[in-house]
Design a protein that fits this description.
505 residues; Alpha-Beta Plaits; elongated; alpha+beta; Trna Endonuclease, Chain: A, domain 1; five-stranded antiparallel β-sheet; 18 helices; 21 strands
Length: 505
């Protein structure tokens, strides 16, 4: 954002919009010149940099000052002194013992103070006012292209304008999660109605206006990440006739004029317990951080995690220590969830609640560690239910298998019917597949098994037998051997010494 005095807008017929800096040749040259001023002033004082900017501003004061304000954030500016300026001034004051009236007396005081601080007199004199803004040193500067500077300037204009918003309406067609994560992280107040998100502005609620207005402006980059988006805002502006509300509108068609500075995609956690949960392994279940936006009455609810397996999804919310108001709001939201039956709650044992406040059965308390066994028991119930439902579904269907294939991979068949491999195998075991044998995750034709049976005659080494199975693409080697009437004889731990023996009947 920019400071409010640098916001340039135009109004017409009750509407307001920033005066954007389009990527014209003139604007690009101005941006390049301002970047150049910063580059040549690395190693010089901030006062010299400010003077150079002042001399370049001319009639484009607010535009150039706005560009400079953005670039200043890319600088490392710090004092350049051998000792702390405050300590230097204190030492000189104590050595002066009153008013210094001449150059000789001044030099003597500086020499004594320098000796006391074990520094040179010149270094002491330089340090005296090194912490004053004009004397600070421009130590580093991260340059950017003129195009990126203009785009960032345009984004900053809109953010500064939204700082004065009395309210905002947002519509997005994707990127819901990122937008609501940002809303949640920034502490913004919102409602949802007819697919639109309504935000209360900084000027319409009882909050610190500056802090809340900044948070509202910071939401803009997340909105702009969506493929299609629009926003409408009511902007309060002072006019000669008094304060007036203007309408501001923006959508994805203007996205090209804005720079976008977004998060790097790194997963972040609010607590060590959340990080621990994410790193735990739940066999067959994929854990995802903040996976969806759920409807909770007129509000949105973003659970901490989801756990998915074969199309079944459950949500996990970790409720750690917080304020009583936070806990009451959390309970209210969870109880309004349409998906609360699929919610697992992990509640800090130190919270002032019993668990009965939540309208869901899957409430577990933790104390420093995740209750892993309790969670796996819940997951197992879902696994059993899913298996039962899928088996029932398959029993009512005619399963189509390619009878022309000697080996049928059941992974592909299960995917085609949208069921788990376990459910498909359960149903296949119940059916009469006269020409095939179920081996592991494959159906193997009797024809192939007869051929292998012939090739195994005279074979003794286990490794040689495995090569035969691999050549035909059979994966469940041990089960295949047993089905053909063989067992493995192990001699020590070395697999090269293992043999296959015909089972006597």
């Amino acid at each position: 954002m920019l400071t409010s005095d640098l916001l340039v807008t135009r109004t017409s017929k009750g509407r307001i919009e920033p005066v954007y800096a389009h990527l014209s040749q003139e604007n690009l040259e101005i941006a390049d010149s301002v970047i150049g001023i910063f580059q040549v002033h690395v190693g010089r004082t901030y006062g010299e940099l400010a003077l150079a900017i002042d001399s370049f501003e001319g009639v484009n004061y607010r535009f150039i000052r706005g560009l400079a304000q953005i670039l200043e954030r890319r600088c490392t500016i710090d004092k350049d002194s051998a000792i702390d300026p405050v300590a230097a001034r204190r030492a000189v004051f104590e050595e002066s013992r009153g008013l210094v009236t001449g150059d000789e007396e001044r030099t003597a005081v500086l020499d004594m103070a320098a000796k006391r601080l074990s520094v040179k007199s010149d270094d002491l004199e330089k340090a005296l006012w090194a912490d004053q803004e004009d004397n600070l040193l421009v130590k580093e500067f991260q340059a950017m292209t003129p195009e990126d500077l203009l785009r960032q300037y345009n984004l900053s204009l809109v953010q500064t304008l939204l700082f004065k918003a009395a309210g905002m309406e947002i519509q997005i067609e994707d990127n819901y999660q990122q937008v609501f994560w940002a809303i949640k992280r920034l502490g913004l107040m919102y409602t949802i109605q007819d697919g639109r998100i309504y935000l209360d502005g900084a000027l319409s609620i009882f909050k610190l206006t500056e802090k809340y207005g900044t948070a509202m402006a910071k939401l803009l980059p997340a909105i702009m990440m969506a493929g299609r988006w629009s926003l409408k805002a009511s902007i309060l502006k002072k006019t000669p006739q008094g304060k007036r509300i203007y309408d501001f509108a923006l959508d994805h068609t203007e996205k090209r004029i804005f720079g976008r500075e977004f998060e790097d995609g790194k997963i972040s956690f609010d607590s060590a317990i959340e990080k621990e949960f994410y790193q735990l392994g739940f066999k067959g279940w994929k854990v995802q951080r903040e996976p969806a936006v759920l409807k909770a009455g007129q509000y949105a609810f973003i659970p901490d995690f989801s756990m998915e397996r074969n199309g079944t999804r459950i949500y996990v919310e970790i409720i750690g220590f917080w304020t009583p108001e936070y806990l009451r709001n959390k309970i209210q939201k969870i109880n309004q969830l349409e998906e609360k039956e699929s919610m697992v709650l992990l509640v800090n044992r130190n919270l002032a609640c019993s668990g009965s406040e939540f309208e869901t059965d899957n409430v577990f308390f933790y104390d420093r560690k995740i209750p892993y066994l309790e969670i796996t028991k819940v997951l197992r119930k879902y696994e059993v239910k899913q298996l039962t439902d899928e088996v029932t579904k398959l029993r009512d269907m005619e399963i189509s298998l390619d009878g022309s294939m000697n080996i049928i991979g059941l992974d592909e068949v299960a995917g085609r019917y949208g069921v788990s491999l376990e459910a498909l195998k359960e149903v296949i075991k119940e059916q009469d597949n006269a020409d095939y044998l179920l081996l592991g995750d494959q159906l193997v034709s009797d024809e192939v098994l007869d051929t292998i049976r012939g090739e195994l005659k005279g074979v003794r080494k286990h490794d040689d037998a495995l090569e035969i199975f691999k050549r035909y693409g059979i994966k469940a080697h041990t089960q295949a051997l047993e089905s053909l009437g063989y067992r493995v004889k192990w001699s020590g731990l070395d697999p090269e010494n293992a043999e296959i023996l015909k089972i006597k009947t």
